[in-house]
């Protein structure tokens, strides 16, 4: 049923019934009310708007006479289908998108190589429903939650992170937030009290860079080498804070070596600086032994660890977390004492139960196995259909690769060619400070949300349109 909330004024010189009539008429013509939608009953709308039933009835009768609505006996009033010509401003976007922003463009893609998609067929819906239904029986679940996140979830996270990533922390050090960007924003406000700039990887995660810039921090790009961020450049930069993705560098896929990790920790001690370690998809490693998190190697409280459930579980849940050094807790609490938690308490409690019962570990093992198979299918398809025309970068972990295309075509041209075939691929130019220095265009291909047939077909079609 439609909700109707017009602004009705007694002093504007127009009868109330006419104001209500004009409001509903305009909403219909603008396409905000759809054909066959039911209007509130005369009694309910009169009660809601605090006006007489006669006033509402007069408005409805006028709309009825002009054909905007119809009366169905014993059922009520319904919106009529109107001519398209009347819908002058039908369903317009409330805010125009920038011309350069095509991320919301409506195209019916046949295959989408999105770098962060998950396979919906693998979602453990039965186990998640069990946990969600169980926590709903607890009445306290509907109260305000703890500002740092529910203790039940933070306890499970501390246990899970220690055994899966070697993170050493107590539940008191964990802060839960609605996405990594939101947590980075909180850190920016803390760091701005004593620092004005931050070092980031080049290329690097644009989502983090934008957060830093939007909070007024200067950003200094540091080159990424074959084994991780350049420590020599970092030292020369004179920054005391650095944001990195060491377990699977975004977007190159480079894994920071253990030697370089120790160099970074030494740098942090010498400068009394901090390392922001974004461990966004460390669950998915396919080659070699896993390297413990930087935080687990840190004995001097110089690492702030960030993680998320967006890649391993679901981005719709909006649950991320950070592990603060104990030395930062008082500063954090002093600044954010009056801030409410941004993640649903219901989801937090359900997730805590989901982890406690072993569902998360089982789910990650399953998707890791299937993603390994998809990765093999992807690499074989690239080798078969593209051969020496491309180089694969960053294939050892994660749910995406970079495909270096050995052509003189621009990145945008390759993306548009793929689009014509209804295949969506993604640029990497936004991640570089100076993309012009790159020899060949690099296209980002995600495989986590596709099945094996789609992966093979997508690579085959791309090979035909790119190398014809």
UniProtKB/TrEMBL annotation:
InterPro entries: Aminotransferase_I/II_large, HTH_trans_reg/aminotransferase, PyrdxlP-dep_Trfase, PyrdxlP-dep_Trfase_major, Tscrpt_reg_HTH_GntR, WH-like_DNA-bd_sf, WH_DNA-bd_sf
GO molecular function: transaminase activity
Domain HTH gntR-type: 14-82
Pfam families to which the protein is assigned, alphabetical: Aminotran_1_2, GntR
Domain of life: Bacteria
Keywords: Aminotransferase, DNA-binding, Pyridoxal phosphate, Transcription, Transcription regulation, Transferase
Xref: SUPFAM superfamilies: PLP-dependent transferases, Winged helix' DNA-binding domain
Named cofactor requirement(s): pyridoxal 5'-phosphate
PANTHER family tied to this protein: HTH-TYPE TRANSCRIPTIONAL REGULATORY PROTEIN GABR
Family under the similarity heading: In the C-terminal section; belongs to the class-I pyridoxal-phosphate-dependent aminotransferase family.
Official protein name in the record: PLP-dependent aminotransferase family protein
Organism of provenance: Aquibacillus rhizosphaerae
